[in-house]
Write a structure and sequence with these properties.
The chain has about 270 residues and is an alpha+beta fold. The chain has 3 domains: about 70 residues, no CATH class; about 40 residues, Arc Repressor Mutant, subunit A (Orthogonal Bundle); about 130 residues. Strands 1-2-3-4 form a 4-stranded antiparallel sheet, with no helix packed on it. Strand 2 and strand 3 form a beta hairpin. The N terminus is likely disordered.
């Protein structure tokens, strides 16, 4: 490689698939070789042919090597950055846009996530499935504890999980773009949480009755539960001032559930 205003710079043993970037004004060479990144800064040199090459110790050359990551750590880092990107930008992007924002190559993303859908599936697992607490179902159905206490414990834990900038925004973006992330989560929420809330409140009110949970029960539970979610929307999407004491949000939610359920008396 020869600069119009500078020397001949020869880099040996560079693989054919490496990328070489030369920026003359700052005399910086950046070499990306697979997962290795090296940055070499050249502060002075001579362009005269035949000049004696300085000894290694005399060269004003500084080399910095980025720490090599294991494949597992590299995948986790890309996934974490992708989650932050999707929370801000939604899902209307191409892989090249994501790569540019993350300052990595598309090929590196494809190495760990072969398709955009594979990456979205990984985001769903990381943000929603891994955050789903199996103890929530236990909290709601343990009849040795008063129903009000059970509901309070559940919503205290649940709000601590979902009141998160990334959780709320990715969930909404997914629904707007027609991805099935929302549908899968709603099925989980209905089957493991809302149906149990309806059943346990009904049992607490009428322990001798065995009436099944009705559609009206589920609708009431959805309306009240949606208020909890909408608190997060106001805070992280609309970005308007909200009550910071989430204990009040939990107490109000529990009170409304115990007041309005069951929707139909047996």
């Amino acid at each position: 490689m020869t600069s119009a205003s500078g020397p001949n710079i020869v880099l040996k043993d560079i693989k054919r698939n490496d990328h070489l970037i030369y920026n003359p004004p700052s005399a910086r060479l950046t070499l990306f070789a697979n997962d290795f990144e090296g940055v070499m800064t050249i502060s002075s040199f001579t362009s005269k042919r035949g000049s004696k090459r300085p000894s290694r110790s005399a060269r004003p050359l500084k080399t910095r090597r980025a720490a090599r990551l294991s494949p597992e750590a590299r995948r986790a880092a890309i996934l974490a950055d992708a989650i932050n990107y999707m929370a801000a930008a939604g899902f209307s992007w191409q892989t090249r846009d994501l790569a540019k924002s993350l300052k990595v190559t598309q090929s590196l993303i494809f190495r760990y996530f072969p398709t955009k859908q594979a990456l979205i599936d990984a985001v769903f697992e990381e943000m929603y499935l891994k955050r789903w607490n199996p103890e929530w179902e236990v909290m709601l159905t343990d009849r040795s504890i008063p129903i009000e206490n059970r509901l309070s414990r559940f919503y205290t834990s649940y709000t601590a999980t979902i009141f998160d900038y990334r959780w709320i925004r990715i969930y909404l973006f997914s629904g707007l773009m027609g991805y099935d992330l929302n549908r899968r989560y709603v099925e989980l929420l209905e089957g493991k949480v809302l149906s149990n809330i309806c059943k346990e409140v009904r049992f607490a009110r009428h322990p001798s009755q065995k009436a099944a949970v009705t559609k009206r029960d589920m609708e009431v539970a959805w309306q009240i539960h949606a208020g909890v979610f909408y608190y997060g929307v106001r805070k992280f999407v609309y970005q308007i001032p909200v009550l910071q004491d989430t204990d009040v949000i939990v107490a109000n939610t529990v009170r409304m559930l115990l007041t309005e359920l069951p929707a139909e008396e047996p």
